[in-house]
Amino acid sequence: MRHAVAVRIAYLISWRGGELTGPFKKMKAQARTWCDLGHQVGLFVATDPGSAPAWNHLDQAVQVEAIGAGWVRGVLGRRRTYRALERWNPDLIYLRHGVYSPGLRRLVRRFPTVVEVNGDEVAIARQTSRFKAAWAARTRSLALSEVAGGVFMTDELATGPSFAPFTFARIIVPNGIDLAANPALPPTADPSPRLVLLGHPRSPWHGTDKLLGLAQRHPDWSFDVIGPTAADLGGTAPANLRLHPELPADDYLPLLARADIGIGSLAMHRVGASQNPALKVREYLARGLPVILGCRDPDFPDPVDFVLELPNTPSNVADHDEQIAEFVRAWQGVRVGHDRIAHLDLTAKERVRLAFLARFARPAGVSSGRATPRGR
């Protein structure tokens, strides 16, 4: 069923990553679903040159800025994105929240804006750059004090101290996945357990380094680590742990098919969080893999047998080795059915999100006063 009133939504994204990354797949699916539900969607993307072709290939792409390295190039490229968005004249901006860029405040003052908050951008920036973290902390209120609403991935983010100073309306909508497009894989038949981690380089919250000890303690298990590098592992990989580069879905799907267990984020404590509705966890579950987590997933507030939730501590994997081994033995060769994860389905979640967005959109036909509508 479509929404009664169509909304012209400008999805504003700053993400240096393309089709190999989970956020790209998520935003692509969101834009497609919103269109399927009767809305008009334009993607306005600031990304790296290598990822720009993938974004431009999407049907909803209106403006894709390929931005090279350097702060000045980043600011100028984002300003061009903002100007293109103004010309498109949306009813509403849906903003993927991140570190502030000059010019954004003017944009969110001009158009009703809802932010999607996937994490504490200051804590995340602190993992890579002191300067970036200091900039984020000093400038974040420039846009956040002007937005109309926020869609949060977890109640921890929505009610925590980082966003407490801001009074915009908020709703919690954890990540979803298109279950129909991700059918469960057949059970494995290998005599030895196989575990898989699907992630990205330079993402310390994955806890990739914690797999080193786990693999050493269980030489009869096999591990496939897709995305993180040797630097993320923090040591020499044992013979039973294989590192793979970031891969397209068609290439990593055989690795998921061979796996018994999916590994979620094991070190959210490194970014000051204890909850995470990780995209990779939804992909594991949709494909039938039970998961090991180092934090709470908000879509599973109560214990379920196919999710092993470890404490969110630095030594969680080492301290619970016996519990992990028991979980692996219990689920080796067994898949999770879609009937047990139906609440993760993307379309239902996007209907909730869109109903929230509709509260803030300008009425149809109302101009911002200066922009000229431009179709695609």
In short:
The chain has 376 residues and is an alpha/beta fold.
H and E string: EHEHEHEHEHHEHEEHEHEHEHEEHHH
State the shape: globular
- Specify the structural class: alpha/beta
Residue share in β-strands: 15-25%
- The CATH homologous superfamily of the largest domain: Glycogen Phosphorylase B
Account of the 3D structure:
- With 376 residues, the protein is α/β, with parallel strands linked by helices.
- It has helices at residues 22-36, 52-56, 71-88, 104-110, 121-126, 130-144, 155-159, 210-217, 230-233, 249-258, 279-286, 316-319, 321-331, 346-358; strands at residues 8-14, 40-47, 61-66, 92-96, 113-117, 149-152, 169-172, 194-198, 222-226, 241-244, 261-263, 291-293, 307-309.
- The chain has 2 domains: 8-176 and 345-358, Rossmann fold (3-Layer(aba) Sandwich); 194-339, Glycogen Phosphorylase B (Rossmann fold).
- The protein has 14 helices and 13 strands.
- The strands form 2 sheets. The protein has a 7-stranded parallel sheet, with helices on both faces. A 6-stranded parallel sheet has the order 10-9-8-11-12-13, with helices on both faces.
- Helix 1 (22-36) packs across helix 14.
- It is globular, with a radius of gyration of 21 Å.
- The chain starts with 7 loop residues before the first strand and ends in an 18-residue tail after the last helix.
- The model is unreliable at 369-376 (pLDDT under 50).
